[in-house]
Write a structure and sequence with these properties.
Elements (H helix, E strand, L loop, with lengths): L23 E2 L30 H8 L7 E5 L5 E3 L1 H6 L2 E9 L4 E11 H8 L7 E9 L5 E7 L8 E7 L2 E2 L9 E4 L11 E7 L12 H5 L9
Parallel strand pairs: 2-11
Antiparallel strand pairs: 1-5, 2-3, 4-5, 5-8, 6-7, 6-11, 8-9, 8-10
Length: 228
């Protein structure tokens, strides 16, 4: 029996782009989420998704261009750490041009720049018991409650897993997840948590939400076993 009231997604499975066919449809033959594309492949339009944060905390941080933002990374780690945006931008920058796959049926290519999660792992030194990494958003989900998602810790060491603060050589806009969003190219779009507030390393996600591994997983009929 499915825990809680996990609702089937009754929304339209695909949202038409105002630019029509300039949004790619996923997956395209021969496409690969782990492939680095070229500048000429960048999509002219990248559909924004997700419920924008509406808390006063987020608005205050945004008003100051996130100068007072602190990314807290804790849980099963030896060295819990807080990062300012200045500190994150001072770390080695990783850039990648990759294809985003939305479960609603569209895809788009964008250039992302940010901090490799492998560098964060080196800083915080995860405990051997840590098996999952939880990304918490400033935003709530459409049915209420904080948006979050869980990722396998082994994905965090992969080359294309980053905390992105730039998109197409510009700072992230609010509509695309400012100040930070996850890019884990092994996973579908709904797992690329936007507006990241905190990161936690855990042994299990049974105690989070409905215990399914993320907000969407808790509320809809798909789960953490659905990588690309």
């Amino acid at each position: 029996m499915i825990r809680g009231q996990r609702r089937a997604d009754r929304r339209n499975a695909s949202h038409p782009s105002p630019l029509g066919d300039t949004v790619h449809r996923a997956p395209t033959p021969g496409s690969d989420p782990r492939h680095n594309y070229r500048e000429k492949d960048i999509s002219p339009y990248f559909w924004p998704n997700g419920k924008l944060p509406d808390s006063q905390l987020y608005r205050d941080l945004q008003a100051n261009n996130f100068a007072d933002y602190r990314l807290r990374v804790d849980g099963l780690v030896r060295k819990p750490t807080e990062y300012t945006m200045a500190q994150l931008r001072a770390m080695p920058k990783r850039t990648q041009i990759t294809q985003h796959y939305c479960i609603q049926g569209w895809s788009a290519v964008a250039k992302w720049g940010g901090v490799a999660m492998s560098d964060v792992l080196r800083d915080v030194e995860p405990d051997s018991k840590a098996r999952w990494v939880v990304f918490y958003s400033f935003s709530n989900g459409p049915d209420g409650g904080r948006y979050y998602d869980c990722h396998k810790i082994e994905h965090m060491s992969r080359e294309l897993t980053i905390l992105a603060y730039d998109m197409n050589d510009e700072p992230l806009l609010e509509s695309h997840g400012a100040p930070l969003r996850l890019r884990n190219e092994d996973e579908l779009g709904f797992k690329q948590v936007q507006w990241i507030q905190a990161i936690e390393f855990v042994e299990s996600f049974d105690h989070l939400g409905e215990g399914q591994g993320g907000y969407n997983e808790d509320h809809e009929f798909f789960g953490y076993r659905m990588p690309i």
